[in-house]
Design goal:
85 residues; mainly alpha; elongated
Length: 85
């Protein structure tokens, strides 16, 4: 199974747990809170970091930092855009 499908499976399972937790909230409140919490943890502490690791593979963090060099590059691009209009 591909990594992408594994992440999707975690996301769908997390959403299912949250929805199930809200659907049983009236009958069994303590268990409902556990399902909602488990779904939230699955989304934000498992699926999101895995997705970010997958998508950032091969990219340089230095390209996304606001260094003087990168700010100059952005300003040059803005000047070229303004000059072309």
């Amino acid at each position: 199974m591909k990594f992408k499908h594994f992440i999707l499976l975690i996301v769908l399972g997390s959403f299912a747990a949250i929805i199930y937790g809200f659907s049983i909230k009236k009958d069994q409140e303590a268990i409902a809170h556990k399902y909602i919490g488990l779904g939230t943890v699955g989304l934000f502490l498992v699926a999101m970091p895995l997705f970010l690791i997958k998508e950032s593979k091969g990219k340089k963090m230095k390209d996304y930092m606001l260094t003087k060099e990168n700010i100059k590059k952005m300003q040059e691009k803005e000047r070229k855009k303004a000059g072309n209009q």
